[in-house]
Please model this.
Amino acid sequence: MIKRSLKQISDMIPIHNDITSFNEIEINGVSIDSRKIESGNLFIPFKGENSDGHKFVEESLKKGAAAALWQKDVPNPPTHLPILVVEDCLVALQELARGYRRQLPVKVVGITGSNGKTTTKDMTASLLSTTYNVQKTEGNYNNHIGLPLTVLGLKENTEIAVLEMGMSGRGEIEFLTKLASPDAVVITNIGESHLLDLGSREGIAEAKLEILQGLKEGGLAVLHGDEPLLMERINKNKGNINVLTFGRTNRNDFFPTEIIQLDQGNRFMINKSSEIFELPVLGTHNILNAIAAMIIAQYFDVPFNKINEGLTNVKLTNMRMEFSVGSHGEKIINDAYNASPTSMMAAIELVSNLKGYERIILVLGDMLELGPEEEQYHRQIGEGLNPNKIDFVFTFGKLAEHIAAGARSSLGRQRVFSFTDKKELIKALEQHVNNNTLVLVKASRGMKLEEIVTSLQK
Model:
């Protein structure tokens, strides 16, 4: 993490007060949460509509913070303490991260996409870690605050940083990629998330392609080659970058030649190697995420035998195809971190093809931020269910009622249950599970369906 004197910090960002008497104080890392201050931190307070972090500056210094920023328009900064007055605390955080990034010799991999970016980030970091000192974005620190904090948390000896870049609108990915200055980037796919903000899949594709604007000259762009919205645009605006594609079809640079679905993962081969790869992650769509990560690993000269080692040991962020067992012996796949029509259909395809279960149950919740056609997207999920492979559907939420309506047309009314109360859903669901049941739980993050998983496990 960043370790600099206050004098060095003042050379990296504009300071509006005299800090001469505090020049030699050294900060060790940064924090924006006064409750989580560690010794030596630079505390960065944010001024919001309902709260003001400046109230906690003195408390943070008493807890061990070495110094703190102070926004210029906030009155009465404590002049007797190591305070750095800046124009805007958020901008100062971002510019400090930008300056620190310039000083580090670290290579950066930037990853974005509508679905699968966190999984691909985890896989990429795992593969690269077989050969390099690697750090990655933790949790959901992938926005205009989280990414700068991740950059400032990089160690001086980190060789490769794998940074996830999220967005809700145009211009956000451009900002993040120009701050991170990646050597290689991945766009996992173009889905329907953020249709509410961007209006169309074409708009989403253009927003995701902003990641190229920060890519170093001659760097590598890894793209989902089966997505025409990406390929049409990259072929028109390629510039001085290298492009490699992955996908299901043989028109891509990298593609799977054989896939064997296992109880809790996959075994597969690709066109570029004779190795048989083991991936302890469910879902054939995750093989594509793995192949994108493999391309990045190859770019950094990781051999295929090391790649196989990295895949075998990959650990995904929680609530992404997370396998567990319930209190009745039922098997649960917790994929409740997020959802879009593309990712929900992929998860349903996965469980539909798993063998050895007496009963397969879907627990599906609202998919958010889909724009004016959101009801139709939900209904299509239900209408597309195979009655020979899915036994029961339980839905939670107002939008998910449209999944239930579609499911009644495909499965019949007796096999579909719709709820707006989680406790009632759980009570009904428990009547249908046994040790030969597989339950898939999936919805957008805001629906908090992991609470259903926790209840089943109890």
